[in-house]
Amino acid sequence: MRNIIKTKVVLNQYILFTILKLTLIFGLLLNSVSCNTTEPPSNAALQLTLEDVSCTEAWLQLTTNNIQLPANINLLVNNNVTQTISLNTKDSLLYIENLLPNQSYKFKVAINTTNNPPPTTNELTTQTMDTTSHNFTWQTFTFGQHSSSALYDVAIINENNIWAVGEIYMNRPDGTPDPNSYNAVHWNGQQWEVKRILFYTICGQESKTAYPAKAIFAFQTNEIWIAMDGDQIAILENGAQVKSICLPWSFSINKMWGSSSNDLYAVGNGGNIAHYQNGSWKKIESGTQTDINDIWGIITKDNKTILYCPVSTFFVPGDKKILKIVDGKVDSVNWGRDVRLYSAWAVNENILYVCGEGLYENKFGKWSEINIEPVGTNSVRGKSINDIIVAGDYGAVFHFNGVNWKMLNTFNNKGYSEVNIKGDIVAIAGNYQGKALVEIGRRN
Asked: How does pLDDT run across 202-234, given as a tens digit for each residue?
């Protein structure tokens, strides 16, 4: 009997233990379901990547995963909390300003929670850019002996190989005016040579004429394309003309840009855009009949070509906008200002400068006007975000060194049409007192 009782007692204890165990598990499950917490899940993830950096600014991309929004985040710079930000979207672009040039910074983002430690991103280390020098030594060269001479575009291959194009009227050896213009000048490091680049007098015929030239684009391979003030292009290799091309339709070319001699764009009056590729020309419909004054292109990290083209005219009403061409498809940059624009230059797909009636910058979609002297600006070019040059009316030249803009000279009667910069060399084309003008600046 004892063994049976004992067995019974043991059985009853086992049943009671099982009931208590099931009750505890059920209670835990019920508690986990009914709990309402604002803390992020344990599998939350944050990632910080660098989008761009200048001398005084940084743009960081914050990507989150399984973070309950909205959420407050702390931005840490060099391990110090500099600001608290309300995060409302999964992915956000963080903008940090008032940094110092040529300094190393560590960035991190942490969620503002009671968790210890709080969820954080990776630590991102970057170096701000250094400033460049405003100090240039300038040389001025003029060309022309009669009539009205001018240069409209300029290209730098290196400090000993600079070209400018336009129309230059010289005298014959006997001192009488030569009615046939020269249309290019070339600097070989020691002196300038006045040249005639030849175009077909009439397309389809053999005779050629040195018509005034309007635009020039030089490739790294020392191949140069020069456009007449019309619809023809001459090609030079190592300084010698090797070819003349007639475009398949007629318009006046204003500027050219190309990633290679097999991928070149020409823009001009009447909203015309021509693309040269694989030996043939294709017309790109721009959606405007207003003049396209300039073109600048960039190649993105994923090998896309993006082109920016300012549109406006001076003498007649028309569009005032900025075309954006991505892989041959035309769109417009959000602009919305009643301002004429003559030139554009892009650092990359995030930072764009335009000028004309004023000077403007677009950084990650946000426009701002740059405070410079009130003068018409005709050309903007740069080497990087800390080395930008602008030229305009009344001899105005402005340089950005990464921190501030500086006017490099005083107002005068020089008219600047185009500026270019390469390395520590700046070249400006224009006119002065009826003569064609080139100015070369060498950084000290």
From this structure: 999 999 999 999 999 999 778 999 999 999 999
Mind spelling out the 3-state secondary structure of the chain? CHHHHHHHHHHHHHHHHHHHHHHHHHHHHHHHHHCCCCCCCCCCEEEEEEEEECCCCEEEEEEEECCCCCEEEEEEECCEEEEEEEECCCEEEEEECCCCCCCEEEEEEEECCCCCCCCECCCEEEECCCCCCCCEEEEEEEECCCCCCEEEEEEEEECCEEEEEEEECCECCCCCECCCCEEEEEECCCCEEEECCCEECCCCCCCEECCCEEEEEECCCCEEEEEECCCEEEEEECCEEEEEEECCCCCCEEEEEEEECCEEEEEEHHHCEEEEECCEEEEECCCCCCCECCCEEEECCCCCEEEEEEECCCCCCCCCEEEEEECCEEEECCCCCCCCEEEEEEEECCEEEEEECEEEEEECCEEEECCCCCCCEEEEEEEECCEEEEEEHHHCEEEECCCCEEECCCCCCCEEEEEEEECCEEEEEEEECCEEEEEEEEEC
* pTM exceeds 0.85, yes or no: yes
Residue 223: predicted pLDDT = 95
**Structural domains present in the chain:** 45-127 (2.60.40.10), 136-443 (2.130.10.10)
| Per-residue pLDDT tens over the stretch 311-357 | 999 888 899 999 999 988 999 999 999 999 999 999 999 999 999 99
